[in-house]
Amino acid sequence: MTAELHLVGSDDRRAPAPSATCLLGDVVNFPTDAPGAMTSLTEHGLLEHTAVFGPRPRTLGSAGRVLVDTLDVIGLSGRGGSHFPAAAKWRTHLAAGGGGVVVANGAESEPASGKDRALLQLRPHLVLDGIACAAEAVGARDAVIWLHGGDAAARSAVGRALVERRAAGLAEPDIRVVVGPNRYLSGESSAIVSALSGGRALPTFRTQPAAVSGVDGQPTLIHNVETLARTALAARTGAEWHAGTTLLTIAGERGRTVIEVAPETLLGAVLTEWAATDGRPPQAVLVGGYGGTWLAWEDIAALPADELGMRRHGRSLGAGVLLTVPADTCGLVAVADISYYLAANSARQCGPCVFGLRAVSDVLAELAESDSGRRDMRRLQRFLAEISGRGACGHPDGAVRMVASALDVFAEDVQCHLRRGRCRHPRVGEFFPTPDCV
Amino acid sequence: MRTLGLVAAVTVSGALSGIVIGVAFRSVSGNRMAPWIIGRAAGVSAYLLLVALVLLGLLLSHPWRSRVSRPSPAVRIRLHVAFAVFTLVFIGLHIVVLATDRFAGVGWWGAFVPMGASYRPVAVTLGIVGLWSGLLAGVTAALAGHLPARAWWPIHKVAAVALVLVWVHGVLGGGDTAALRWLYLLTGGLVVVAALSRYAARTPAEHVAELPG
Amino acid sequence: MTGNHRGHGTRLQVNPIACDGVGICGHLAPELVSFDSWGFPVVSARALVGRDLRSANAAVAACPRRALFLSARVPARPSASGRPSPGRPSPGPR
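Predict the joint structure of the above. Result:
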C-alpha cells in the first residue's frame, strides 16, 4: 500500500508535482532484536535530497506569510501528538512579535513511536529544511534541533547533514543541535523551553503558551520533526500538490514498523497487513502512543488513517502510533505494563502524578494478576477522576486516557479477571517497547 | 445535613465529657487533694492530646502519607485543628485548677510568668514556655491567611519545640510514679521515631533533584 | 501573584509543581478546596465573588509554597490548547 504513494495524484490531469510529495515512501522496520532501522531506504545526502525534493524555497517576508496560509489550507497539525494547528501556532508567534526561537523537537516523546527516528536518520535534510523555513518565516534569532540523549544514530545523521549544508554554503539560518537527557519527559515542550533557558529539562508550569513566552521569555515555536518535515514539503508543493500522507508506527509482537500511507487508507487494511497474527487481526489497538486511547478492532477497522478523517469520527491519531494486542493475548497485562511505565516516568514534580499514577499502576498490576475485587475497581475509578487535569503537563492526563479507555475496551477481560480470578486468553504479551529511561 | 451531623457530634461528645468529668469529680469529692488530682489529670490529658496533635502534624507532612488512606487528608487536617483546640482546653483546666489550689504552690503569677512558682519552678517554667510557644504556633496558624510573609509556616516548623519543653515539664514536674514515667518514655519515643522517619524519608522533590540533566 | 484580586472570572488556581500538599488552603477555604486521595488540593473552578474571594485570598496568602494564585486565565496546559476534548485520543506530552 505504500508503493503507490509515489503515484498519489497521478490519476489527476494536473501537471506532475514539482517535487516528491511524501516523506519516506517506503517501509522502515525497527526490529526489537536489532539496534538500527532495517529498510530499503538510504540516508539522503544533500545532493540526493535536492534531486528528489528540489531546493528549499526561501520563506522570508511575504513568502513566509504565504507559507503560513499554505499550512492553514492543508490543515497541518502537530505530529508530536497534540495535533494543534501549525498555522495557529505560527500566527500566535508572529502576533507575539515574532523573532525568538524555533525548536525542532526530535526527542520522540512517545517511546513506542519510530517515525521521528526514521525521519531524522533517513531524511535529515528535510527536517533541517523545515526548521530553516520556520525560522525564516517568523524571523527567529535562534534555531535549535532538540534530540533525545539515547538516539545516537539520529544525532550523527543530523550532524552529517549540517556539515554538508555548511560546506555547500546554503543560505539559511544557523541551526544548533542540542541533546536532551535520555528521559521520557525531556521531549515535553515546557521541558525543552526550560532546558534551553538554562534550567533542567523537566516540565514547568506555564500560564502562557511557548509561542507567546518560551525560551528566556521570547516567543518560541516548538514543532515535532515530522511537522517541520511536512512544512518543508508544503513550502515546495504549495497547497495544490499537497499529498497529505500520514506516518504510522505499528508496534506489536513483530517489533516496530514505520509506514507512510495515503489519505483515506483504512486503518483496518493497514492493521491486517502489518499486525495480523496467524491471519487474525489484532483484538485491540492503543492509538496515539502510551498516553493514547484503546480501540477495539471493530471500532478501529473502518477509521481512516489520517488525522482529519479521524477527527470526523471524534478520534485522533496522536503521534501516529498503533500498539496492537493479538487476538489470543491478555490486554490487561499490556495495560498494566504501560501504566507502570508511565508511572515510573513521571517527572515526579506534581503530587497527583507522582502518587496517582503509582496508585493506578498498583491496582492495574493486581487486576492483571486477577488479584483484585470490585472495591479496587471503584478505587481505580476514583483515582482516575482525581488525577485528570491536575498535572503541569499532559502526562497524567494521557495515562488516565489510556487506562480509562482500556477499562472500556477490555471490559469483558476485567469481568473475567474479577469474577473468575483468571484470564480467558491463553497468552500474556510483554512486547511493548519500554525503554530503560530514568 | 453536615451542620446537623456537627451539632449531633458536639452534643454527644459534650454529654460524654460531662459524664466522665462528673464521675471523676465524685470519686475525688471531699478529698482535700481533689484539685491537685484534677489538675494533674488535666495536665496528663493535655500532654497526650499534644502528642496526638504532633503525631498527626507529622503524618500531614510525611512523604509517605499517600500510603495511609485513612483518615482521609481532609479529616486529618480537621482532626489536627480539633486536637489543638482540645489540648488548649485541657491546658486551661490544668492551669486554672493548679493556680487556684492554695496548696499547690503555683498561683496565678506562677502559672503564667517564668520562674514565678514556688513548686518546682524550673519544671513549671518549662511548661509555661511550652504553652506560649504552642499558643504562638496555634494562633499564627489560625490567622495564617491574614499574617504577612507566610509567618505561620516557619513558626509551625519550630513549634515541635513546645512538645519537647512540655515533655521535660511533665517528667520533671509529674514523673513521680512508675506508670507516668513509662507513659512519658513510650509517647516520647513514639514522637521521636515518627519525626525521624518524617525527616529522613526521601521527598518527591529529592527524587526530582536526583534526575540527570 | 499574591495580591488581592477583584473582577469577574477570577478563579483560584494551583501550580501543581510548586504545591507540596501542606493543606492550609483546605483549612482556610474549605468551600473552594477539597483534597484528593493523596492530600493534594483540588480547587474549585468557579468564579470568585464575595466571601469566596476573601477566603481564596487568605489561602493564597497562607500557602507556604506560594503554589496558589488567583487568575482569570486558564493555564497553558497542553490539553487546554488545541487538543481534542476529553474522551478523544491525543497522547501524552508534546
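The helical segments of chain C are 24-28, 50-62.
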